[in-house]
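WARN no homologs supplied; continuing
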Amino acid sequence: MSEEPPVRIVYSRSSTAAQSLLRQRHILTEAGLLIRTEGVAEGLRPAEEVLLFEDPATTSKIPALERPAFAEVAAAAHRGRPLALTGAQLEEVRSAFVDRGTSIAALARAHGVSRAAIRSALTGLLPGRPGPPVLIPTEDPAEALGAGR
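OK structure emitted
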């Protein structure tokens, strides 16, 4: 099984309309992340396996996730490796752990994965390993964020 080359995510931003992304694009070209092209309006394109995101004239007073391109970066990155077990295997592992008390090591051997993969499959079931956060709807946004406590 051949391994796919890693995708490189590149984000650049200028703070004001008076600034430009040209200097950053020049540095990215020197690093081989952008490639010069002929007959294209901007004259540059991302290299293979490069995802380029740019936020021109975006002040730092705007929170990162409210910047259009940065929000795309967040959606494209920060997800981790896919789970080694999915679907029926995932349900079988969770059931064997909860219902039959099968050990993590035994589950890893039986499914041919690492113990870490089993622990990931058991997220929310292990002590000290909380599941994904649950958002509780509330009328007061400050209360939802824990403000005023």
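The chain is about 35% helix and 10% strand.
OK
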